[in-house]
Amino acid sequence: MNRTILYVVFIAAVLGLGLLIGTNNIPGEWYRSLAKPAFNPPDWIFAPVWSILYVMIGVVGARMFLDHRRSAAMRLWLAQMILNFLWSPLFFGMQDIASALIVIIALVIAVAGFVVASWQRDRISALLFLPYLAWVAFATALNSAILLMN
């Protein structure tokens, strides 16, 4: 398969699935009624941030698939995708803040593990995951605060 086509497929799959999960788990009245910490960003920020991150995650997935398909980094990439796509249905769909916190903690570990595992083999992919790691760490703090406040 052509490398460019593979990149497009990965980006479209990650972005498309992320947007599909997001549109099926929209924060509603329940979320608006929750007590939130002062550092909670405005709701409008989440869609553009996640869209940019999903494009970066897709690029990294394609890089891993093309050059490091059987590596620990690729397995961690797959694990973080599963955890990432599980969080919104748990938090917003099932309104299960505690289970979502467990998943997002595992997600932080998987993303950090990916950065470590890919650092020597594919520094670009590791660097592309640093903003993702920062955002997921922030989201973990937010999830934790919401759990404690509610």
TrEMBL record:
<comment type="similarity">
    <text>Belongs to the TspO/BZRP family.</text>
</comment>
<feature type="transmembrane region" description="Helical">
    <location>
        <begin position="5"/>
        <end position="24"/>
    </location>
</feature>
<dbReference type="Pfam" id="PF03073">
    <property type="entry name" value="TspO_MBR"/>
</dbReference>
<feature type="transmembrane region" description="Helical">
    <location>
        <begin position="44"/>
        <end position="66"/>
    </location>
</feature>
<feature type="transmembrane region" description="Helical">
    <location>
        <begin position="126"/>
        <end position="149"/>
    </location>
</feature>
<keyword id="KW-0812">Transmembrane</keyword>
<keyword id="KW-0472">Membrane</keyword>
<protein>
    <submittedName>
        <fullName>Tryptophan-rich sensory protein</fullName>
    </submittedName>
</protein>
<feature type="transmembrane region" description="Helical">
    <location>
        <begin position="98"/>
        <end position="119"/>
    </location>
</feature>
<keyword id="KW-1133">Transmembrane helix</keyword>
<dbReference type="InterPro" id="IPR004307">
    <property type="entry name" value="TspO_MBR"/>
</dbReference>
<feature type="transmembrane region" description="Helical">
    <location>
        <begin position="73"/>
        <end position="92"/>
    </location>
</feature>
<dbReference type="InterPro" id="IPR038330">
    <property type="entry name" value="TspO/MBR-related_sf"/>
</dbReference>
